[in-house]
Amino acid sequence: MPKQTNLRPAGKEEARQGASLVVVICVAALLMAFALAMLYTAGVLLSRANERLRQERSYQLAQSFSQVLEKELASYTKTSGDDAAPERSFYQYVYKFLEGIYGEYDPNHPEATVFHYTGGNAGDENPEYGVIRIALYKEGLEETDTGMSGFINGDSDATAITQLEGTLFNRRTFTVEVTATLDGVSYSYRTQYQQKATYRVTFRYKGDIVVWANNAWHMSSAEGEIISLGSGDQIAYQFDPSSDDIQTCHFIKETYAGPEGGNP
Hints:
By secondary structure, the chain is of the alpha+beta class. The protein has 4 helices and 10 strands.
């Protein structure tokens, strides 16, 4: 009896092999697409990380420079005489800015009421430190009559006189804005300060000027005639808030106004 052979049609076998090849190609295409998607996602994340790093560097630069300026403003209280701030210091510039002819801040005209301070070569970019720009703007002079005048007893001692002469008055509010630009990214760091000042005080007894010196009251000047006053005698005092009569000037940080990021 002849041996039987199980034969399949050649067309069906080729069709099966062709279908398998299509499946393999589709799976390879999906894997390739997934790999490309992963590469794209990684590139996007890396780009965002680099952008965030540049922003962080600009922010840290602006913040650090602001802290340097804050430290200098807190280091001095005088513009002349002993222990005065150096002539070309930031403290001196701010004082002249506040007491000079510079106008008060107007939000409708910032280009004319925001003023810029530059130290060194303005606009020069250092590859490591970028470009630093400092802007200042001030509010109006505070008007206050509280504590500007009054009376003390004639038997007041040196401690009471010294405390009165050291009275601090609020004078102005101003803002220092530091903008750091590094690798094409800018960040602005704003700090608000209060200018406080002590003023020259004039003492009068029955309308005549008296001066406290060497633990005694003198008529007209420190070399004048000594007068004897008791607890029942009243000496009037008056502070003069004009710029020429500022004795000491203090810059006190009031608030941190916050950073502002973005490209220039």
